[in-house]
Amino acid sequence: MTTETDNLDNHLPVSHNTLRKTFLRVDFPVEESVPETILEPKEIHRIPFSFVVPSHIPAQMCHHTCANCQVHEEHLQLLPSLGKISQYFENTHDMSPSEAEITYSIKFSVVEKMSNAEWPKILKETTYPIYILPRRSEMAPLLLAPESRYYKIRKEKCLKKGILRSEVGTLVLSTFQPLGIELCRGPQPQNSIEASTTVRINLRFDPAREKELPPHMVSSEIKLKAMTFFGMEPWFSFPDHSGPSAWGSRQTYWSETISLHLEDCFINWRKQAKAEGSDLALFYTASVDISIALPDTLAYPPTFHSCFISRAYALKTILSYQDHSKWRGSASASLTVPVQIYVS
Hints:
This protein is an all-beta fold. It is built from 1 helix and 15 strands, in the order βαββββββββββββββ. It is elongated, with a radius of gyration of 27 Å. The chain starts with a strand and ends with a strand.
């Protein structure tokens, strides 16, 4: 498995900034679990308590302007833990930069009761970190603009050959957003069936002349790209729908890419015909299905968007083919399609 990293170097560095918010408070009367109102030294007093983590954060926490209601609603979803993954799981990483973290902890305080005339006295306080992985349903596929910076679902290439670079034909690759990748038991896949999906690549070759044949496919490769958007200014819209030119000066981007799948690619081209005026033009079509599964050596926070941090994923598929202009070697074409990771 190889890992590649990429950051946005045309923006100002984002300085370290911390936002803290208590969104759940539980007042627990200790008398219900500890009959003795006085805690004796060197004795262990067990105080069981339970609480339900809400699925949404308070509406007033997102008070900035949003592009539409969908963005505002997404910003109110409970955020998953992000970063500092090693304190919960051994020898793993969630592909997030150190500058972007979402952490949760339980803060426990023991308060001594005083008379009505005096303020309660805090005897002891401690915090315990917890990992939160909220359930998130799969959202509708994205509507992508052709000029999208992060996704490319259609590519057209003109194939040529010979010293004179005579045109052979046009190769068109297209795809669509695959089914989301579901995590069932935690942020890491548990088996080969879980956390998988299939990407279909549709190909079309329009020969420049009837005698020209479609290229011979050599191999297929697919990579997972984890994109983390973060900053000290709230996001007006979903950051992966726009580009850096629409961002603020204190908003930036980080990505890590891992290889998931590489194998030889053999396809059967289907010869077809279409009527163009009085002529009958020939063309060839084919499709490639690439199945992938997430490696269990990493943790995968689900796709989410919040006011200050977002995580999105993409699958980059690379098809290598025998170039007509080369006796040896091959050329390649790639597509990048969004994919959601969600928790059932």
